[in-house]
Amino acid sequence: MTVDVDAARAALQKIVARFPDTEISLRAEQRLAQLGETEKILLAQHDRQAMDVPAGVTNLGLLDSTAWLRPRAIEPGKLAAVHVKHLAQHPHDAEVREKLATIYARDFRRLDLATLELNQLINEPKHRPKQIAGWLNLLANFQVELGAEPAEVIATLEKIVEKFPDSSLSEITQRRLARIRLEFEAKKETPGVKLGVYEQNIGLKYGSPRQL
């Protein structure tokens, strides 16, 4: 079945215009961001080049290793640049913004940049409570992993209790708060990784998330 992308885009744009500043408008904007599949197209150009199979390789099952056939991992800096460019055009794409925050935290250990990205999602009032709680928990995870003070992590998790009292989200969070010290003890057993200047400045190279 062929999808009429132009017609779908026009329908979504009508929803945005008719129901501004609502959850349905936000969902429509996120769907618009996915329609063009900008991210997928850019990644395909970078990572999915045509690959010649050496002569004589007719049965992959007989090879000692097929590791060379696997797609090459994309360098995190280039992937971050793709996400930043995409978000400049589609700032409400929550999925891509979360991916960018994860790259900043996990690949470059930049808690400040990851926090900026996640806060944009957390502070968007039209997101669902479960999503907001998920991003606050993710931010707390990054804070634990990257050596934030326990008080900072506790404050992050307490926002869930404050925003959604008398809910299952609050109950789950309170259970995590009760064992937060154990998370820090487990973190002490994992050695840190020292990064160079390039990794530390990755966010500056591709532009601050504040500009998106």
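Second entry:
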Amino acid sequence: MKRPAFLDRPLSPAPREHAAAADMSRVLCAFMIGWYHIWQQSWLNPSLEVGPIRLNFAPYVRAGYMFVDLMLLLSGFLLYLPYANGRESDAKRFYQRRALRILPSYWLCLLVMLIFTLIADGPTRLGTLAQDLAAHLTFTHNLFHLSYLGTRLNGVLWTLAVEVQFYLLLPALAPVFRKRPLVCYGAMVGVALCFQRLWTRQLTDNTMFFNRLPNMLDVYANGMLAAHLYAKLARRKDHRALIAALGTVAAAAGVWGVLRVLRVQAAIGDYALMHLGQMDHRFALTACGALFLAGGSLSFAPVRALLSNRPVRFLSGLTFNFYMWHQWLAVRLKLWRIPPYLAEADPNRVSEMPWQLHYTLLCFAAALSLSLLLTYLVEKPCARWGRQKLEPARNDKG
């Protein structure tokens, strides 16, 4: 007897080129990082009461900065996935594609920040501003106090420095990882742990060092290993029910683990200990995130449909510009008293309502609106134009 079609659809193979959980991960990471930075300005109590049910989001919002590590994990997963599928690019093409992806929006962001800073500071700090800008243009701004902790441009952009520094390694690292995944994974984690335990943890003040690439190699290693496993299991045509069941369980375990780590991290009150806690929890957090990425992308088709659908993919496409602009917009709106508030100074300190709620909603709306415009008027057209210019040249050489 022929098996009913609706019984086969939940076991349909996962597409090797597209990991469903990556779309939801990107949206959640950007949203939670944004919520954390907006909460820093509003102090709106992150809880919700629906009748007798009270949902307390406070631990997850207060530890929202930890989603930066999950965002870098996702980057390692997505950057390595083509190599895991045997579609590696030569280094030149890899760098071209990365440049087309990030530089137009990044340069525009820096230009706007530069203009606002010049208006605010005038000519009094041109030398300092030039050094800050030069570090940002060379993606070394996380290496200098002036352009990392003291930047006048945009504080959240330090993650792009780490990303681009990792880009330099990937074309050489990825083929080795594909041939010897466990050896390469162990080496990357080992290097990260050595830097974390033997260098960064021993410093009296580690603020300048705990977010540097060597301390984050284990994050990228977890992402690459998850992509390697996903690529191997996604191409399997047998044991689909077992793979989907294990994937669903792994995704659920990953979510539970991430929430557990966030609760533990949120309980740390001392600022210096927060840095150490973030560094100490980085491996466990991103290992759980890797479980969600690989497991969710291998799970039953209905689960994958929840993780990647048109609305989620649409929001996922806005996250790059949302991430770059949300904090700056939140600070500016508060400075401009939009929406207006009654307090003479910070309205968050006196828990001024309904300003806190209106301000929070406005910050999200403004960041999403601006990211929508920049994505479809700058990021995508520039990337498309660049590909059109590069493809003919590549075909001519061929």
